[in-house]
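Its record is retained below.
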Amino acid sequence: MRKSILLKGPILSRSGYGEQARFAFRSLRKHEDRFNIFIINTQWGGTGWVCDDDEERKYIDFLIEKTFHHVNDKQGFDMSLQVTIPNEWEKITPMDIGYTAGIETTKMAPQWIEKSKVVDRIIVTSNHSKDVFEKTTYDIINKQTNEKVGNVKCQTPVVTVGYPVREHEAESLDLQLDTDFNFLAVSQWGPRKNIAATINWFTERFKDNPDVGLIVKGFFKNNCTMDKEASKIALRNLVSKDAKCKVYLIHGDMTDQEMTGLYTHPKVKALVSISHGEGYGLPLFEAAYLGLPIVTTNWSGHCDFLNMPEKIRKKGSKKKTTTVMKPMFADVEYTLGPIQKDAVWNGVLQADSMWSYADKDSYQNVLSDVVENYSKYEEKAAKLKDWVRTEFEAEKQYDAFANAVLPETADIPVEDMLVSFD
């Protein structure tokens, strides 16, 4: 029979974790022959909420109210799916599953290893996160002898499921751009995203070129007016007054249709990201399946969908081939180094972990090459778009996620498949 499953996460949040919770919900809903869904909505930082007035939102609201009455009646659940960072995972049902974007560094916190014992299964968004979960170890030291007596690591099974390609009609945007060739950065302002260097190094390279621009779609905490003013100030402080290149700020809520319009705008030529690491990298993924050329490093979560398999002839053989993963983007060189002190987050981002640092010269040279040899990157983006749309097709990803939560069975009564929210 169907399993009652409690989806606990920021399903109404306009954030990466909000999108993650909505993907989980859509996957479960597609398989309501297996899942009787209940929802507890949680907040994610200071981010705003989605306010779509559509069928999906009405159904989410219905399930939230249904859950309230279910809990009030002191009824339990067969299983839970908790969409958040591992610090917040709890043992609340007979079968608890933790679903997280994972980690952007080389090492997870010991608290995460301890919390991994609380859940029965872990689902992450990228192979980078899976590798870090499985490979992070800490030595157990005898305090009296100071000798190593063992080690601890995550013992809970970890499964990777990437996001699905989503189709949205592009809404036409009147961006009022003075420049015809513009890079786009979609990012929250913060240490990990490295947005200051993204902007500063761009303006250094194109300070004498009035024909190139950078559009920054960003925010600090949310999309309120105060945040917009803070973003303006931060941007002005990064751009030299005598720079001839243009830097534009887009701030505020945008619908999926508007974001699609932004990625596909004829004057937007490439997405740039030199963040220190990604658990997945949703803007990069969206740009990839919409065919927008991408400038980034080849490290962390986005490698899953920006590197495309390609057959090449084996060395010394005329017939035999081997498959290699080829980067289908403008590849910025990087080094791994310890995370910055102001990025350390006790219990989440370890002070002794590392992430990537984009090389300034490489970044600037790649930007110039994209401008001067744009057709080369257009061709790469077109090939990547076709591959990503096949590999991460929506129905395929919904099925993969549902099966990661609960493997498909054939013993569910027909009457349990009937769901109504009238």
Residues 181-392 form a domain with the Rossmann fold fold (CATH 3.40.50.2000). The two ends are 22 Å apart (CA to CA). The chain has a mean pLDDT of 92.
